[in-house]
Amino acid sequence: MDAPPGKEDVRPLYKVTGLWSPLAFHVPHVHEADIAMACCCSRTSALRNICSASMPATIRIAFTGRAVRLGRDQTQGKDAARELAPYDREPLARELALMPEWFCKRHLEVTLTDAENQIVADTFEFLIAEALMQPEVFVHRDFHSRNLMITTERNPGVIDFQDALRGPIGYDLVSILKDCYIGWPRERVEQWVTGYRNLLRSRGGPGGRDGREFLRWFDLIGMQRPSRCWGYFPACGIATGRRGTCAIYL
Q: Is residue 168 within 8 Å of 221, Cβ to Cβ?
């Protein structure tokens, strides 16, 4: 990986690779790195990602289930999570603020009234407060199908984890089960959520008072993440002249 100095910083990638490698996550191995030159030499045996068009549905289901099981190892990385910055109020609020600015105002060209802005602000405050009440674990932040790779061993391989933070336990579960690229029936999603919670509890992880509370955590952080995407991806599209970028999230 070659990241131009002054434009990209390879240190987060290098750091998180070192934190995740001892855990169950299959991440590219860094053989050499020159941090000053912003260059890393890594290797992975990745073949394609889970959402590839040619991927049979049965294989996609199997790999998604495996990714859900992989996620339980977040709780085994407590020491690693302490090395990460918190996914706290500041980043949560910053990401949510992108939606009214870029998705509504810039992309849809809609100007919200004062009353509508207050509703948005109150809703965002509620979502932030709920997120901060969840137990904190190692959070990939983009744990979705395009970043989960089929490899020759230890599937799935995980990439694009340089933005990892210490945050809400439901976040990565939402990323894979409420994926922007693959849709799942609600019944199957709830089965996976229940299975995930059972694995967490079997390993001494936090599972909430009961399954209902855990599902509530999942669904509420599942409102923050798409709001972030609605804001972030129209911002990227408008900045580069590709206004249709957000269409995949609608």
A: yes
CA distance 193 to 68: 8
Token duo for residue 113: 């009234």
What does DSSP assign to residue 221?
H
For 180-200, b where at least 16 C-beta lie within 10 A, e where not — what string?
bebebeeeebeebbeebbebb
Q: Which two tokens stand for residue 120?
A: 């948005």
pLDDT tens across the length of the chain (250 residues):
556 666 677 778 878 888 887 776 788 777 666 665 545 454 555 456 666 656 667 777 887 888 887 766 666 778 888 999 999 999 999 999 988 888 888 888 989 999 999 999 999 999 999 999 999 998 999 888 888 888 777 778 888 888 999 999 999 999 989 887 888 899 999 999 999 999 888 888 889 999 999 999 999 999 988 888 777 765 544 443 333 333 222 2
CA 226 to the chain's CA centroid: 11
- In single-letter form, the type of residue at position 152 comes to T
Using DSSP, state whether 127 is helix, strand or coil.
helix
Spatial CA neighbour of 170 closest among 227, 212, 219, 204:
219
